[in-house]
């Protein structure tokens, strides 16, 4: 056994190590568990859940772009009821943190989802996806509206018995203001960042390469943006940060921790190297040994400017 | 499904831009079924970033072969692989063709590189003693692939080889000769061709399976990037990678 302590805390939630698998890149855990021993990593964030099942967008949903990909899945998911009935029994088998991601089209729906899920002991925390259109307010994204972010945070916190993390949109001018709004409304941490809005055209047909016209850009292409957003939050708001965006190697992950992340999520990389989260555990130990870091949590926010 | 570092045994050119890549990979070769696919990381860099899906063309002992058209990007990287090089492969993935069914004669229908999964299927059908007839189509002679097919009838859009017209028209013109047999049709090719084959099979009540294609990111069901409309459940998409790529002709609505 290594003497290095990899455990980290995200507010009140303690993880075995800072490695989390990002929402929408691991479904509800069953497929990825064929490649990864989920008991070796910090935890997984489930695919966004809404109150009722969602079919999602029609194809084409994904396209590769330079060092990244665009997706417009449309939050296809099984819904809260089916999740509790058929997905939780599988997740129960693991000794890993299950963070449940919620996406909704009204404040009331966020609250109702949380209320139905919070009694389930297998769930360790909630991550709230605010990058969804607010149907009642003309489809404007909640994530672009500080007051909406604050309202969702406050009301979800009111019914939740678990820590609540707010997953912030990078498609704003000052992400730290949104982190502050979440903090003041009671959020336990923020996840930064969600995908960046992008598009791509087929030059022969002149049509967008994805049916939804725009999609969310992810992958190595967005890593520098994500890092800068994490740093901005770290320097302006005192709230734990979960870093996410384009991590493809343990070195990328270490950068996020240096910039201020307490933990990090692996997303698009799971599609390409589905076993990387497990191999990263040892890479982090070797890095700590080399750098004489006894406890990995000391790396968080250790940047020297 | 497995993740393996497979070793390149050979790259062979069999047509104008058509190549076979044979990879040493005991686990994937041992577990593969006709119609399944592998997802290959063709380079160690981010160019391209995602894996590329390829039908398993055939299995020979501890190795398997894929067939591909080199069209630049990922496929030209594969074309340039050297013997002994290591390639990161995930597979076997998805559901393959079913050899079961109430038929004596298997009718293979391939459009262009849609010929890729059939050498493996033909070999397995041969073992069960089924009769096999193959239809292969392409835009012109160079696009019409007949590799390891038997009893082949060819169709080309420009008439440069075989029947002038598309492969489903050719099948239609030959079907009277087959109608006294108990047949099962196996199709693979571009979506417009599959759509017309599907229509043909449904209107004639032929038992048939089609191998579909889609953009995908992961290949094993987690990205949800490859939805296909189900004919029975409109509330939920099927996934090409996990529920397919081979479907019963009655089960999916092609885009």
Strand arrangement, major sheet of chain B: 10-9-8-7-11-12-15
Low-pLDDT runs of chain A: none
Describe the sheet with the most strands of chain B: 7 strands, mixed
Largest sheet of chain A: 8 strands, parallel, barrel
The share of residues in helices of chain A is 25-40%
Indicate how many domains the architecture of chain B comprises: 3
CATH topology of chain A: TIM Barrel
What would you call the quaternary organization?
A: heterodimer
Per CATH, the superfamily of chain A is Aldolase class I
Beta-strand portion of chain B reads: 35-45%
CATH superfamily of the largest domain in chain B: Nucleotide-binding domain of ferredoxin-NADP reductase (FNR) module
CATH class of chain A equals Alpha Beta
Distance between the termini of chain A: 35 Å
* Gyration radius over CA of chain A: 18 Å
Share of helix of chain B, binned: 10-25%
Largest beta sheet: strand ordering of chain A: 3-4-7-8-11-12-15-16
Number of helices of chain A: 8
Form type of chain A: globular
H/E element sequence of chain B: EEHEEEHEEHEEEHEHEEEEE
What would the average pLDDT of chain B be, to the nearest integer? 96
Distance between the termini of chain B: 28 Å
Question: Outline of this structure?
Answer:
The complex is a heterodimer of chains A (305) and B (255). Chain A is α/β, with parallel strands linked by helices.
Descriptive labels:
heterodimer, A: 305 residues, alpha/beta, TIM Barrel, eight-stranded parallel beta barrel, 8 helices, 20% strand, B: 255 residues, Elongation Factor Tu (Ef-tu), domain 3, Rossmann fold, Dihydroorotate dehydrogenase B (pyrk subunit), domain 3, six-stranded antiparallel β-barrel, 16 strands, 18% helix
Structure report:
The complex is a heterodimer of chains A (305) and B (255). Helix content of chain A is 30%, strand content 20%. Chain A is of the alpha/beta class. Chain A has a single domain (8-56, 74-197, 218-299), classed as TIM Barrel (Alpha-Beta Barrel), CATH 3.20.20.70. In chain A, strand 15, helix 6 (250-259) and strand 16 form a beta-alpha-beta unit. In chain A, helix 2 packs parallel to helix 3 (146-159) and helix 5 packs parallel to helix 6 (250-259). The longest helix of chain A is centred in the last third of the chain and has 16 residues, at 276-291. Chain B has helices spanning 26-31, 74-79, 118-127, 167-178, 191-203; strands spanning 2-13, 18-24, 37-41, 52-60, 63-69, 86-93, 105-111, 131-138, 152-156, 163-164, 183-188, 207-211, 227-230, 238-239, 246-248, 252-253. With 255 residues, chain B is an alpha/beta fold. Chain B has 3 domains: 2-93, Elongation Factor Tu (Ef-tu), domain 3; 97-210, Nucleotide-binding domain of ferredoxin-NADP reductase (FNR) module (Rossmann fold); 212-255, Dihydroorotate dehydrogenase, electron transfer subunit (Dihydroorotate dehydrogenase B (pyrk subunit), domain 3, Ribbon). A 7-stranded mixed sheet of chain B has the order 10-9-8-7-11-12-15, with helices on both faces. A 6-stranded antiparallel barrel of chain B has the order 1-2-5-4-3-6. Classes of the chains: A alpha/beta (305), B alpha/beta (255). The interface between A and B is medium-sized, with 36 and 31 residues.
